[in-house]
């Protein structure tokens, strides 16, 4: 009888969510897990709410933070605060729900 050994592949994940455009805390701040640098991983998963209100400037800040992370694969899932990423839904419903008190052109 022949025994076959399968190779084990380890995959490291870093999972974050609900960052709402927050800056990473300094590495010396041990009171917070969300600190610079994020743990090195094979996969970084941001599971929603990168922004507060879905403004372009907020997305740019959040993506800058994600891009600095040491991970070969980065997956971002939009949350309800990232409503502007679904343009059709935003125009149909989201603008009224999230940006109801602003002129349409100020939602960036």
Keywords:
108 residues; alpha/beta; three-stranded parallel beta sheet
Question: Could you list the spans in which at least 5 consecutive residues all have pLDDT below 50?
Answer: 104-108
Largest sheet: 3 strands, parallel
Shape: flat
Order of strands side by side in the largest beta sheet? 1-2-3
Structural class by helix and strand composition: alpha/beta
Relative helix content: 10-25%
Number of alpha- plus pi-helical segments: 2
Q: Which whole number gives the mean pLDDT?
A: 88
End-to-end separation in angstroms reads 67 Å
**Extended strand count:** 3
Percentage beta strand: 5-15%
General description of the model:
With 108 residues, the protein is an alpha/beta fold. The chain is built from 2 helices and 3 strands; from the N terminus they run ββαβα. The longest helix has 13 residues, at 56-68. Mean pLDDT is 88; it is low at 104-108.
């Amino acid at each position: 009888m022949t025994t076959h050994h399968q190779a084990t592949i380890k995959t490291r994940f870093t999972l974050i969510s609900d960052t709402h455009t927050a800056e990473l805390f300094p590495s010396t701040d041990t009171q917070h897990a969300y600190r610079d640098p994020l743990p090195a991983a094979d996969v970084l998963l941001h599971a929603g709410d990168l922004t507060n209100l879905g403004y372009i400037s907020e997305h740019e800040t959040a993506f800058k933070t994600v891009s600095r992370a040491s991970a070969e694969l980065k997956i971002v899932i939009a949350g309800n605060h990232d409503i502007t990423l679904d343009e059709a839904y935003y125009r149909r419903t989201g603008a009224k729900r999230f940006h109801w008190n602003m002129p349409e052109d100020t939602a960036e």
